Amino acid sequence: MRFWMILTAALLASHWAAAQAPAAAGPSRTASGIEYQLFRRGPDGRFAPRALTVPTDAPYASRAGQFLTVFLEFRTGRDSVLMSSRRLQPKPQPFPLLPTPPRGTLEEAVALLLPGDSAVFRLPADTLFAKTFQGQPVPPFIKQAGNVLVISARAFDLVSREELTAREQKLRAEQAKAAAAGSAKQTLKDNAQIQAYLKKNKLVARKTAGGTYYVLTRTGKGALPKKGQVVSVLYKGSLLATGKVFDASAQHGNVPIDFPLGQGQVIPGWDQAIAALPKGSKAILLIPSPLGYGTRGAGADIPPNAVLRFDVELVGVK
């Protein structure tokens, strides 16, 4: 995991370390030129300077291949905040500890930290961008601010790759569980909206096993399409709540859309309902939002949690 990915996805903390550090505590410097100040919170709750132990001593031994969870904050030499991982992610992010960190890099700086440490590092921006950020050019505004990056860091715990994987799997499971609960709740709401729509418009709908409603307005004489077959469909899509059309074959030269059925290349509601239509059928599809574009919506025309109506014609199966 390169740090550039971490920087883009979840960068760093606050300037607590610099703010609470004693004014008299001056920076030290590594042989590679990194200025650093290490701090640790004392019994009184205040941060006090911590001397750097030899990297081969017990606290640092056998850390290669493990991850140190950290918050990081990047500032220019003129104290303008560039990125803060705490603002992007509420939890500290894992930073890989390398067997031999390249000299003068962020990897070398973070390797000086022990769990519980806070620190302030000053690194030459051109060295950092050349080595840590894989040769990307230094933005002009950083050069103008002194060609230096000031990095505040706070380290939390040391985890193995196996433990990190287990944490990520647990997090994904928790997120999936929460998403499923939210989807179930939204589906109940959407179903009520669809039922009211059917009643108001005196429509009789069928429902797929997966939860998509469809009203056959013309039953074709062909066979039902099978999973994996390429189907050709003419369509008009609109929002059930407002009737606003957001897309239609008529807007594309009345050319049908082709896709392999059941392969996830269209929204789930389409895969479910088209499979229930004999070739040549026309139908109205009423699709609950979890089977459409869900909580994200799609572009400017389809808002989050939108129930969709599609008027479709299955013109081809091959």
Assess the beta-strand content as a share of residues.
Answer: 25-35%
The level of helicity is 25-40%
Q: Could you spell the SSE succession in H and E letters?
A: HHEEEEEHEHEHHEHEEEEEHEE
How widely separated are the two ends? 44 Å
Secondary structure category = alpha+beta
Total helix count?
Answer: 8
What composes the largest sheet?
Answer: 8 strands, antiparallel
CA radius of gyration: 29 Å
- Mean residue pLDDT: 88
Describe the structure in brief.
With 318 residues, this protein is an alpha+beta fold. It has 8 helices and 15 strands.
Describe this entry's structure for a reader.
This protein has eight helices and 15 strands. The protein is α+β, with helices and mostly antiparallel strands and 318 residues long. The strands form two sheets. Strands 1, 2, 3, 4, 5, 6, 7 and 8 form an eight-stranded antiparallel beta sheet that branches. Strands 9, 10, 11, 12, 13, 14 and 15 form a seven-stranded antiparallel beta sheet that branches. Strand 9 (206-207) and strand 10 form a beta hairpin. The longest helix has 40 residues, at 161-200. The two termini are 44 Å apart.
Which structural traits does this protein have?
7-stranded antiparallel beta sheet, 8-stranded antiparallel beta sheet, 29% strand, 8 helices, 318 residues, disordered N terminus, alpha+beta
Chart the SSEs and their pairings.
Blueprint lengths: L2 H8 L5 H5 L7 E2 L5 E7 L5 E3 L17 E10 L4 E4 H4 L4 E4 L9 H5 L6 E8 H7 L8 H5 L3 E12 L1 H40 L5 E2 L5 E6 L11 E10 L5 E4 L8 E4 L7 H7 L7 E6 L20 E10 L1
Antiparallel strand pairs: 1-2, 2-3, 2-7, 4-5, 4-6, 4-8, 7-8, 9-10, 10-14, 11-12, 11-13, 11-15, 14-15
